[in-house]
Amino acid sequence: MSVENFKSIFNGLERAHGVTFIDKKGADGEKIKGKSFVKREPVTEDMWLKHLQGTEPSLGIIPINDDNKCVWGCIDIDSYAGFDHPKLINKIKLLNLPLIVFRSKSGGAHVFCFTTVPVTAKLMRDKLLSVSAVLGYGGSEVFPKQVELKSEEDTGNFLNLPYFNGDDTTRYAFQENGEAANLQTFYDSYERNRLTPEQLERLEIKRPQSEFSDGPPCIESLTQTKLKDGRDRVIYQYIQYAKRKWPEDWPNRINKFNYNYFDPPLDDKTIQDKIKFHSKKELGFKCNEEPMCNHCDKKLCKAREFGIGGESVFPELNDLQKVELDEPYYWVNVDGERVKLDNIDCLIDQRLFRRTVTKQINKKPPRIKPNEFDKYVDLLLAGVEVVKAPQGSSILDQLQDHLEEFCSNRTAKSTTKEDILRGNVWTSEGKHYFIFSKFFHGYLQRKKWGEKAQPTQQMLKEHCDCKDDRIIIGKKRPSVMIVDAFERPENNYTQKKLKEDDPF
Predict the structure, then answer these.
(1) Do 121 and 147 touch, CB atoms closer than 8 A?
(2) Can you name the CATH fold of 3-202?
């Protein structure tokens, strides 16, 4: 398979990409952690080639483009040891799903869906969320991770591509028989399985049928076999369902559920304690807890008679991105929608977070206990992805730009030293002279500069090569700042010559 073919298969956002430096072992044998981050640069032909050649860094592509469309999506199933890929492949075959399973860098699975032409990110994401729930990996990350990029500042999230180092790789696609596929074999499989937009739209996700098909999909899926683990949390979820469906008879239903679907059943005292507790309280579903989250399909659940319906459920939060600035800002996915957080307080303060989310995507997250909210924040921070800031966006870069603009514009108005006192810049013998307070209060603050005067003055001295001095202006000796004169762009404008009889 050619590099061009590989590029067309995994094409995505053009103005940014991800890079990953692979984990290695040091001289002492200890593992050196790899690094991943987003670069705001287009992917060059050379980068695609080096990825297939196995030259670091490994390439990551953001599937959603600036039109909010994509030609591929992926379910990222994390696992670090012993993942049963053949079992997953067989389950996909039984469900008759046109998906291709890859071994991921971590040893888990990447389950890809490909299309012939770009489809909306929303369509791809909705379908794969339903697929992941049926497969029992509803808590896994789904790419594209958002349905819309909010601005040119927003880069979305990248996925590490397969076939790093070509056919000699650990990131390969599986054939239907469970064997590794080389690049050409994968390409043949891709040609057979890619879908038109109409085929993806019509793709049927077969769900297990049970007596609970009018309630949360998680209960429907979990009760296909008798449960040994997570019984406490599952019985909680079932109680919320039973109270909605059988408001007069729900306690008897709890006993029946316990003996029919748990192995071993919870003891009678435990069940009676739970019935007594829930008789006095009206609580909501817990969709984000295991094992329910692994089988969660929120969109389907909302449509079911005894599902979450209009109930306010705390949203799924994932994929925190930190834009690397002196004062960083953040992006986070809230139920698949992008939300920009102007500072760290908007993340760690629940009140500010709820206000920010509501303002940007018109969804108001319910208030939860402080310790629960802190858990969400801790999980986000543990997996934060760093995005390199655009060139020129640091505070120092901005200050340098402001200084140059100020000196260039105010010099034109200044002819004598006296003009310095009026807030202008005097230029003489290759030097600009200005009064700091005039620059700070008369210029920077109008530009909504966020730093205070003293640190700003210090930054001018330490990073912009400005010096303090005093000069004599008449009877005054004001303190001024001096910096080497900036080269002014040539003015190529030629004034129109007027005829003698042209009126003014």
Answers:
(1) yes
(2) DNA primase, PRIM domain (3.90.920)
